[in-house]
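Help!! Second protein's tokens look totally different from the first
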Amino acid sequence: MMEAQIAAKRGHFTIEMELEVDQEILVLCGPSGSGKTTILQCLAGLLKPVSGLIKLNGRTLFSDKDRINLPPRDRKIGYVFQDYALFPHLTVKQNVMYGTRKPCSKLTSLDPLSLLHSFGIGHLAERYPGQISGGEKQRVALARALAAQPELLLLDEPLCALDKDTRIILRHELKSINQEWQIPFILVTHDEEDAVVLGDVQISLSKKTAPSPAVPQLVNS
């Protein structure tokens, strides 16, 4: 379970967020500039909140009161970036292997090839990112994030660059992955249809025009 009560700065604005998510998909929905990615970065340890508390399965990842701020590598959080952030000089298999905490000594469900086959892209193992489609890159990015055995998966606009048909397929796959792995997902999107289809819980963020706290609205779907 992820629990967070944080305040974060974004330019001249302060974003105040309180959330709790178990083995489900929580969607942060809102327009560009509303602070969605800022929240993900705070949870992942890429950005330090101004104040608050972040806990994952009972472990404290951040606490301004106790002066705790674990680095990203120690948080056990997977992060799928909007642009996939694949290494262009590495093969698909090598990209996934980069996400593993330690080499697999035997074939398991977390072996890079097994992960790729589970996403239906095992045949692409020796190709490079420049040789595969957007939907295939998204699957590679997901496989790499899961290879690290995360306790939480963060996804930043994971479907925004995909065509309509691929989006529909990936929505279904994300729901299936969440049910199979039984870990919390926090997904950022500005697309209302993605939010409705994917979200077990939704939080809507509004873009502020004055330097006052951006307070989220919690919506159970």
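Here's the second one for comparison:
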Amino acid sequence: MLSHPESQIPNPQLGEYQCLADLNLYDSPECTRLATQAAAGRHLQVISFHQDSAVEVYLCEDDYPGWLSFSDLGLIQPATVLYQAKSFSKFDIQKLLPEVISFTQKAMQQSNYYLWGGTVGPNYDCSGLMQAAFASVGVWLPRDAYQQEGFTQAIAIAELEAGDLVFFGTPQKATHVGLYLADGYYIHSSGQDQGRNGIGIDILSEQGDTVSQSYYQQLRGAGRVIKSYEPQRR
């Protein structure tokens, strides 16, 4: 996880802030379990305080909730310009897909491991890698795999093109996501118990190795990114 020296802004207030460094956000005010991460430059909204230990926030780009430790308050500053979502057409996004794919391939070349909640390199979870890859070209996706599935335009597996998302999980919910490359292959960050403990390339086929087969058995469908996420909370 990311760590920073303890510092604190005096008299923190509700409102919109910008991250001065990569930050961890947690799923409770105890700040023990990582929920997501916020890269330097991202905007967050402080919405409440929990005693003297944490502040409740949500990230402006994707509306994702979390808790920021008081020890990291010195690493945010009041936003001088409020976050405004940028609009992309599906044709704009299509032109950017080679850069999105390149981001994931470069990330794979770095030493990395699977980190639940990871959205800041080198260690990602599955949907964190997808979000970071698209964010690298200015396109925002929702944070979690099931949210990304609902956000994208559903397509048939036979219609997959490079840059589409591939979803895995149970009949009820998507729990994993990868980025389609070509010829049946996709790149994703998978866990240690049922994957490669980091970023790797697998194939959508029963003929693949044990990891590929395991995910293929959980294949739910695919989606195409045709827009950038627009925040709902203000």
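Reply: Different proteins will give different token patterns, so don't panic. The longest helix spans residues 90-109.
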